[in-house]
Amino acid sequence: MRVAIIGAGPSGMAQMRAFEAASRAGEEIPEFVCFEKQSDWGGQWNYTWRTGLDEHGEPVHSSMYRNLWSNGPKEVLEFADYTFDEHFGRPISSYPPRPVLWDYISGRVEKSGVRQHVRFSTVVRWVDYDDAAEQFTVTSEDLPSGTTTSETFDRVIVGVGHFSFPRMPDFDGIETFPGRVMHAHDFRGAEDLAGRDLLVIGSSYSAEDIGSQAHKMGARSVTASYRTAPMGYEWPDGFEEKPLVLRFEGSTAHFADGTSREFDAVVMCTGYLHKYPFLPDDLALDSPNNVYPAGLYKGVVWQRNPHLFYLGAQDQWLTFNMFDAQAWFVRDLILGKIEMPPAEERQADIDTWLARFEAIETVADEVRFQVEYTGELIEATDYPMFDLEEVIEIFLAWKRDKKDDIMGYRDRTYRSVMTGTIAATHHTRWVDELDDSIARYLAPVPTDAVGAGAPRAPR
Ligand SMILES: Cc1cc2nc3c(=O)[nH]c(=O)nc-3n(C[C@H](O)[C@H](O)[C@H](O)COP(=O)(O)OP(=O)(O)OC[C@H]3O[C@@H](n4cnc5c(N)ncnc54)[C@H](O)[C@@H]3O)c2cc1C
Ligand SMILES: NC(=O)c1ccc[n+]([C@@H]2O[C@H](COP(=O)([O-])OP(=O)(O)OC[C@H]3O[C@@H](n4cnc5c(N)ncnc54)[C@H](OP(=O)(O)O)[C@@H]3O)[C@@H](O)[C@H]2O)c1
For the chain: N or C, fewer Cβ within 10 A? Predict the structure, then answer.
């Protein structure tokens, strides 16, 4: 049995860890190869300054920016088999910056010794399935040399993420806008927006965070334009929400409420497309960004070909520990420890979850949906179970904290579901911290630290 894992982001890393854990427990595991087009692992968390095409002429994968900090508390994404305490040896704050989370996810797989399984700088170009042989042919390209190779595999696991191909709408007259127009995927930092007027289009996490980042870096004004509903936070002075832009006339944007305003730059925070250019259409997932993409049994098995799996294809409340739950489940299906039900049974299960999905009315329902889905997968495997109700509570506290103080929520702390450890209060308030390096983050209170105030009670 040979297994191909496509992508060494948090999902692919979870899959390798799952196989390695089984091997360590004395089980026989299949030979597995992980293809990763970047030169290092970490997926979105592997920051690059590049935009557009990379050094090999490949589309740049990561949409993260230099100053990105976790936008959810680390307590909801913690691995159950490798805690923050184990990695850092002491409590850290609840909202670490990107390099700190990269260090954490890398630390676990470095410890597992799975790097040897990854073919870095190798992009998967095409995957074919041969019904008669019941095998996939995976064609990949070693990017530095340009050499292409085709190999057969019995199972393929797709872990390429779905926040890399921008959804880029058109607006009347936007071609006359004289300033910078970009998608969030290409945003790398807001320093050049100091003293300028920014328009972000969208009302989800990218709009919220890129807008906040620009405000933090001294933008003169930030305007967020929504299509369906405003974010509704109590924004600081100079930050406002407006309904959708109807048209541009030079640097002026005209909004649906009849108002207009001039801008220096526009960032489209309009989301991403599920796109799998290496898969034929009968194997490629096609879905809006939601918590239960259709056609996936248990959210991971491609219903039309159960030898193909997807990890992390959902919109994500949970991330790292949900990817673990999925990876452990897929591993056990592949090892035969969990039986793959026949197509009709799989469809019945998909339909049950779809009915639940369609009944979702509130954000709290959606969080519960994803946490319960994750719990169902964990129960089927030996991945350590954790207190799922507590995770839901932390999500709800996070939501409240953001409503309370959108520019200050990252200074709050929570209690680990895995270890009971109360997060440390970071030495500098998020809004004042301009150095996002791991060295600065882990340093003892720096002399220029702007105190995060009295530690708050953990939730
Ligand atoms: C801007 C932004 C901010 C985010 N912030 C947070 C956050 O604060 N907290 C949080 O928990 N989550 C956050 N996320 C969610 C993020 O998607 C997950 O944390 C996580 O990175 C998803 O892991 P993944 O492995 O499924 O996908 P990715 O991280 O996208 O990794 C996929 C990997 O597949 C590789 N790949 C793609 N195509 C190919 C190919 N053809 N051949 C070979 N390799 C390929 C890529 O190079 C990449 O390494 C954020 C996402 C974005 C876009
Ligand atoms: N760590 C961080 O701080 C951070 C920062 C940024 C992003 N992220 C992560 O990145 C992922 C993607 O988030 P995202 O915000 O980029 O995408 P998203 O959650 O899919 O949201 C897309 C947004 O675009 C809007 N939109 C789509 N088409 C539009 C159009 N034609 N006109 C106007 N608006 C349109 C949608 O509005 P409707 O509501 O009208 O559909 C929605 O508000 C999430 O997992 C998020 O957590 C994290």
Answer: N
List, in order, residues 6 or more apart from 150 with CB less than 8 Å away. 137, 138, 139
Pocket of ligand 2 (CB under 6 A): 68, 70-71, 163, 167, 169, 184, 201-206, 209, 227-228, 244, 269-271, 289, 316
174-268: what fold? FAD/NAD(P)-binding domain (3.50.50)
For residue 218, how far is its CA from the centre of ligand 1 (angstroms)? 29
Q: Which strands make up the sheet holding 260-262, listed edge to edge?
A: 245-249, 252-255, 260-262
Tens place of pLDDT per residue across the chain (459 aa): 999 999 999 999 999 999 999 999 999 999 999 999 999 999 999 999 999 999 999 999 999 999 999 999 999 999 999 999 999 999 999 999 999 999 999 999 999 999 999 999 999 999 999 999 999 999 999 999 999 999 999 999 999 999 999 999 999 999 999 999 999 999 999 999 999 999 999 999 999 999 999 999 999 999 999 999 999 999 999 999 999 999 999 999 999 999 999 999 999 999 999 999 999 999 999 999 999 998 999 999 999 999 999 999 999 999 999 999 999 999 999 999 999 999 999 999 999 999 999 999 999 999 999 999 999 999 999 999 999 999 999 999 999 999 999 999 999 999 999 999 999 999 999 999 999 999 999 998 888 887 655 444 444
Rounded to two decimals, what is the model's pTM? 0.97
Q: Where, residue-wise, is CATH 3.50.50.60 in the chain?
A: 2-164+272-392, 174-268
Q: What are the contacts of 378-382 at 24+ separation with CB within 8 A?
A: 378/325, 378/328, 380/329, 380/332, 380/338, 381/325, 381/328, 381/329, 381/331, 381/332, 381/337, 381/338, 382/25, 382/328
| Residue 409 φ/ψ, nearest 5 degrees | -65, -25
Q: What is the CA(450)–ligand 1 centre distance, in A?
A: 32
- Which of 13, 40, 44, 55 is the pocket-test mutation for ligand 1 (most atoms within 8 Å of CB)? 44
To test the pocket of ligand 2, the residue of 170, 199, 227 to mutate (highest count of ligand atoms within 8 Å of its CB) is 227
Nearest to 376 by CA among 364, 389, 385, 367: 385
Highest CATH level, class, for 2-164+272-392: alpha beta
Q: Which atom of ligand 2 is nearest to the CA of 169?
A: 31
